[in-house]
Specification:
globular; 10 helices
Length: 339
């Protein structure tokens, strides 16, 4: 028999794939925020995604706690860290959610904005505590053993080139365009490797780095822990590896992390960031990108979305192309909100 609170059914019968329910949530968020693409208003775009996601989350049969959300309760009235979501029935799960990953990308009409959600057993997701940043590296399975946060990045890229049997000039690393990365970027270019700079959206970049036949070989940089946990959930499903380490910005943040019991030298891999045995991940494109096409409003009545729907236990990766009737969506959302 299944364990209490598990999504597993008794042996020999079909079990429940929560990712197939979660994709409805990311589709709703993507469709709502897509109305704000290129409008220069990232707050309204994010708010629309949060509102749409919230309506559908309470229809999912689960007892969920938001571990990675929009912030603390006072800063984020909905989908805040610690919020309980779902209809309250089993299973008990942790939730990581970013209703609009890449708010600036959406506001500017740039590629790779996503609506993302991940789910795993209760108590399995890493809580970054007071730390705002973590150092991250991600790559596909055949290079996973080469990841090392302490080795100079040009050396790691040389090892990847050797593993691939190519020149280092054929290796590409994706890096967030931030002043804190300038020295390393200069070293990588001097070594001869190529760099793809991105303004935001390192969940999409991490997925690109672990995807077979991708032009990107490695994700590297110092970015947000929430994106690291979400990326790890996707990597648990699709394959590859991520390693990360908390990166306090100053002495005050370092002391707060140490006082809270965090080991700032610990290397966190995908299994540590999301430790559950059954991880679910869903993402829907908001703007067109390398991983997913965006949400497109093609007529007064119809819209289309493209999503990734994944589960670690089965290793199944689905790419879902959906057509949506806008009138029915509006009526459904209104009924759910009034219920």
């Amino acid at each position: 028999m299944a364990e209490p609170g598990s999504v597993f059914a008794p042996e020999g019968t079909p079990d429940r794939n929560l990712a197939l329910e979660l994709v409805r949530v990311t589709e709703a968020a993507a469709l709502a925020s897509a109305r704000w693409v290129g409008m220069g208003d990232k707050e309204s775009a994010d708010g629309a995604a949060v509102d749409a996601m919230r309506v559908l989350l309470d229809t999912v049969r689960m007892d969920g706690t938001v571990v990675i959300g929009e912030g603390e309760k006072d800063e984020a009235p909905m989908l805040y860290n610690g919020e309980r979501i779902g209809d309250g029935s089993s299973p008990e799960v942790d939730i990581a959610v970013d209703p609009l990953e890449g708010t600036t990308l959406c506001a500017s009409g740039s590629p790779n904005a996503l609506a993302v959600i991940a789910l795993s057993e209760r108590g399995s997701m890493f809580d970054p505590g007071p730390c705002v940043y973590m150092q991250k590296m991600a790559t596909r399975s055949e290079h996973a053993d080469l990841l090392d946060l302490d080795r100079p990045l040009p050396e790691t890229l040389s090892l990847i080139a050797e593993r691939k049997g190519t020149d280092i000039r054929d290796v590409m690393v994706v890096v967030l365009d931030r002043p804190r990365h300038e020295d390393t970027v200069r070293q990588v270019r001097e070594a001869g490797a190529r760099i793809r700079m991105i303004p935001d959206g390192d969940v999409a970049a991490a997925l690109l780095a672990v995807t077979d036949r991708s032009p990107v070989d490695l994700l590297w940089g110092i970015g947000g822990p929430p994106e690291g946990v979400l990326a790890a959930a996707g990597i648990r499903c699709i394959g590859g590896q991520i390693v990360a380490r908390l990166w306090p910005r100053d002495d005050e943040e370092r002391e707060a992390a140490l006082d809270a019991g965090y080991d700032l030298e610990e290397v966190l891999d995908a299994d540590r960031l999301v430790a559950g045995d059954d991880v679910f991940f869903a993402a829907t494109g908001v703007t067109d990108g390398d991983v997913l096409q965006g949400a497109h409003y093609e007529s007064a009545e119809g819209a289309t979305t493209e999503s990734l729907v994944m589960r670690s236990r089965s290793g199944t990766v689905r790419r879902v192309h959906a057509r949506h009737d806008r009138t029915k969506l509006r009526d459904y959302a209104r009924a759910e909100r009034d219920a």
